């Protein structure tokens, strides 16, 4: 096999380029090359580096501002690793090889050209202002340089505890106490009218005991994720509040659907409902940085057109798993059809139920494959989902809990 053919094969495996059309990948392959390095060689991140480097095989140590991280590549068994991902010229970055290594060198200019040519935005109807925003935003998305919200570490740790049969109140208390903001918000919620008892709660452990393990998990996951939905100015704050409110309602329906139908994990379904629209967050924050007082119509337009793309970036960045990547990817894609029951289907039906409950426009349920997949009877226009008729109290309790 020629080197060009080998490069083409690797580009088909690389997350950055595997969705690029085949002919474009063949053209890009001509601007790439393999590099073989011996042990104890050093590579430094140069300002305005003309290429991106990916570790295919071998062991290296990456040093970033004095902190070391060991990276290992196994040709054909592991995904290529971008050596300087997330690093900037302001960082003191270098990579030292520990074993013989094989790298893939990709020209930045050629890569940008291929990614730009692969944009499928011709069907978008944009006014001049939207076009200007999109011209700046889309390259950041395709080159994975869009600033993403920080990982909600507490929420992720709580989700891990959800899957650990040996985890108990002590472990959950320790996780919550590691974040003062979350701990304070939990105490405030516990002493709210919804949960307040005869005695004021002053410790996280007592709050967990009053709420119970399940309520604490759900509430703290909500509180941790809510921190990602931040904006500074009135218009963008209102947009972010709306996105979060939709997520809360969707998550309540997702939880009840999983519980009522007895499918998948209800806590995971709740998380799926919360993060289904997470792609709106980096878009709104980008718009805010570029224009502190944008038109609400502009925000809504760009969010509706791009949030599924940015949502995939966020879910991957947070490391939430492929099942939730599909949730973000299929967000608002009513034609999504899975081979088996999955969280994306639950999130879509939950989105439909949320829209219907608020009297907002939603598609004909009979034309949404997720209903049939979940074994639900598609309701008539204007009617709620019959299988959830007895879940009103549970839905109201969940919404009240998340709105404390």
What does this molecule look like?
With 404 residues, the chain is of the alpha+beta class. It has 2 domains: 111 residues, Sandwich (Jelly Rolls); 250 residues, Hypothetical protein af1432. The chain is 51% helix and 11% strand. The chain contains 17 helices and 7 strands. Strands 1, 2, 3, 4, 5, 6 and 7 form a 7-stranded antiparallel beta sheet that branches. α6 crosses α8 and α7 packs across α8. The radius of gyration is 24 Å and the shape is globular.
Q: Taking all residues together, what is the mean pLDDT?
A: 86
Question: So what's the CATH class of the largest domain?
Answer: Mainly Alpha
Classify the helix fraction into a percent range: 40-55%
| Integer tally of domains | 2
Oligomer: single chain
- Major sheet: 7 strands, antiparallel
Shape: globular
Helical/strand content category: alpha+beta
Question: In angstroms, what separates the terminal alpha carbons?
Answer: 62 Å
Number of strands: 7
What is the string of SSEs from the N terminus onward? HHEEEEEEEHHHHHHHHHHHHHHH
Assign the CATH topology of the largest domain: Hypothetical protein af1432
How many helix segments? 17
Features:
Jelly Rolls; 2 domains; single chain; about 50% helix; globular; alpha+beta
